Amino acid sequence: MEENTIRKIKWFWSWQDEQEEAWLRNMSQKGWHLSSVGLPCIYRFRAGEQRDYVYRLDYQTFPKKDKQEYQQLFRDAGWEHIVEISAWQYFRKEVKEGEAPEIFTDVESKVTKYKRVLAFLAFFVVILIAPLPAIWGDPPYSWSYSLWIILRVISLLAMGVFMYAIIKIMLRIRQLRKL
Amino acid sequence: MLREDTSKYLPLTESTYYIMLTLVKPLHGYAVMQKIEEISNGTVKVGPGTLYGAFTSLEKEELIVKVKEEERRKSYVLTPKGKKVLMNQIKRLEMMTRNGLSVIDLL
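^ Those are the sequences you sent over. The predicted structure of the assembly is below.
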């Protein structure tokens, strides 16, 4: 790896996007600017001058043609698109006159963003629920019973995580609406 | 023609209201943002995330329609249905203002 880049591994849950944004801003203030994000949760930073960049995350999936329009709109408004990773769109813009710029300027559009995340999580829960009846039956002929138990535990754990994420995001939406 | 019920769209959020106001003539996204800031004397700012979301849902509800595309910038304009929704919103706001002004001396 080049000398002027560093790699950091940090985990953020999908309801912690604001913490993630704050962390990235803090890195830029120290002179480390986000250059890419890779799975699983690997952040690459390039060394540069210390700058007060604000980072904002959107959650969007779309066909390629719409993506160009989307990115152009942000570019026109002075936002640099850094990377897209599993539908999360990372943008940054430098703070001018002390006012942190926003990509979402009202509560409703912020709520809509979290609803898009919710739709994705709900889709996964459905995928995880579908094979449950089969998993709760007898194991296939050649499978050992312990392997079967492990499969059950994993699928339940995965579902638990997704359910927890859904609840967390719903609470986040409620909190936003109360503001 | 079937009479469409536009009341389900009301009241519009402040951002959506201003976005629709600017789209009485075809305009692309960035121009919409600038125009809103200008006509609201800087009191209303619409970020690109909010604007993109509004474009998507307004287009889906057929309140606006794409009319032009150049260099990745798409222009939109109100549809007849969109105009009707905006008209009803303006009437509502007018009544709200009139009612407000009638008690303003007591404040």
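Chain B touches chain A at residues 13-15, 29-30, 33, 45-54, 57, 69, 71-74 (CB under 8 Å). Chain B has one domain: 11-106.

Shout if you want it in another format.
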